[in-house]
Amino acid sequence: MQELPVWWRWFAWICPYQWSLYGLATSQYGNVDSKLDTGETVAEFVENYFGFRYDFLGLVADMIVLRSLYSLALSFITLKWNHLFCASS
């Protein structure tokens, strides 16, 4: 994320796909202590190359759940709103 231009970083923080990718990569590889050919562990590589920190995993889970709840609430409100105004016409 550090290599993104400054004007695109806001999009990365609100994009649900970024949070999903962050969660998947971090939960699968964020605590792997196997050494790579370069001498660093897989967990160090994930943090250094992608900027994904294992200690952010709770925040990532919260963001995914909140985004899902937001989508469900918005769908429910939209359906109710349409039902209210379409039924009266």
How many distinct domains? 1
Q: Strand-and-helix sequence, N→C?
A: HHHH
Oligomeric state of the chains present here:
single chain
Helical amount:
over 70%
The beta-strand count equals 0
- As a percent range, the share of strand residues is under 5%
- The overall average pLDDT, rounded, is 87
- List the total number of helices: 4
Show unreliable segments.
none
| Secondary-structure content class | mainly alpha
Biggest beta-sheet profile: none
What is the rounded Rg?
19 Å
End-to-end separation? 50 Å
The best one-word shape is elongated
Write a concise keyword list for the protein shown above.
single chain; about 90 residues; mainly alpha; 4 helices; about 70% helix; about 0% strand; signal
Structure, described:
Residues 1-20 form the signal peptide. Keywords: Signal. The protein is mainly alpha-helical and 89 residues long. The protein has one domain (15-87). Helices cover 71% and strands 0% of the residues. It is built from four helices and no strands. The model has no long low-confidence stretch (mean pLDDT 87).
